[in-house]
Amino acid sequence: MDRKSFLTTIGFGVMGFVGSIFGSIGFNSKKSNELCAPSDPSSSTNFGIVTTPSVSDNYQNSIGAAGSLRGTNTYGSMAHPPFFIKEDYTERFYFPPNFSNSKNRTKDFNLNLFPLSVNIAHNVNYQAWTFDGIVPGPILRANLGDKLRIHVKNSSPDPHSLHFHGTHDPMEDGWEPIPAFGERTYNIEAGPIGLHPYHCHVPPLMVHTAKGLYGALLVDPPIKRKPAHEFVLTFSGWDTKGQGKNDFYTWNGIAGIYDRYPMKVPVGERVRFYIQNMMEREPVMTFHLHAQTFDIIRSLGSIVPDGHSDVVTIGQTERVVIEFVLKKKGRYMFHPHQTHMAENGGMGWIVAV
């Protein structure tokens, strides 16, 4: 590296670091009763997202090979979000402490399934199959015992289906294909409490899941959990080169989304992560939080912690709930402890303020 390139790299690294700390806060409200929604913008508790300044021409010019950004991440990440993805992308994955789910005992959801080219990283488009045009699909949230009617429209030339993890009538299990341009309504009872992935179950299953057909159903207990800043995190791998192996990794569908737009939470308040691993082609990933340990709730149907650590291992389609309190202001890194996953999109930050 010559002297000019070295100084350029250092300069942009400082710009990215300073910008991520002193960015403005953004949040708005586009809420339904059942889908994940942010808090009211007029609320005084406006947490969940911290922004960075708009991208400058110099920052744009720091793009390196394969979409990397030279010097913008001191930990060597080589995957970053597309520049047009803004902080409001993360809103649907955050529930504020005062969130209250609909008390309707019967809840109706509609999912439209269709192919779409999605942007998973800077200069990286992927021909995905989607629920409602987004990956992961919409977060469905219900109370234990609610009757759920999920109407699925397959607006695709390929057969697909909708399979929920959890307990339900086997006639509603979702392994039977919905034919191309067909429709079906699934009727299930929400339970047990906890996080349940949903995904297409048409063979070859790896292809249908890896191309983006998955989402999350969150089932709340009859007695509410302690108030917390809640985030639903879905981890995924992407084979963008068609070589049978993952080369990008994402939290909630975008590589490096929480690197550019860290989560923002207040010091001393409870934080709860609902984490699921929907990665294909690799059997396991880990979640590691820097500078803070957390309670672990693995058992479905329970709100009582059954472990405590700073790292937890999650197999394919497994999920875990973790809870913690950040007692000091600062930036807390999180990432898989599989280094190639962290370096290629899986690293993020929580900012305690």
UniProtKB/TrEMBL annotation:
Subunit-level organization: Homotrimer.
Name of the protein described by the UniProt record: Copper-containing nitrite reductase
Keyword GTP-binding: no
EC annotation from Swiss-Prot or TrEMBL: 1.7.2.1
Gene source species: Leptospira levettii
Lineage: superkingdom: Bacteria
UniProt cross-references to PANTHER family, sorted A to Z: FI03373P-RELATED, MULTI-COPPER OXIDASE
Record keywords, A-Z: Copper, Membrane, Metal-binding, Oxidoreductase, Repeat, Transmembrane, Transmembrane helix
CDD domains linked: CuRO_1_2DMCO_NIR_like
Family indicated by similarity: Belongs to the multicopper oxidase family.
Keyword Ligase on entry: no
TM segment ranges: 7-27
Annotated Pfam families: Cu-oxidase_2 (PF07731), Cu-oxidase_3 (PF07732)
Domain Plastocyanin-like, chain residue ranges per copy: 118-222, 247-351
The protein's required cofactors: Cu(2+); Cu(+)
Catalytic reaction annotation: nitric oxide + Fe(III)-[cytochrome c] + H2O = Fe(II)-[cytochrome c] + nitrite + 2 H(+)
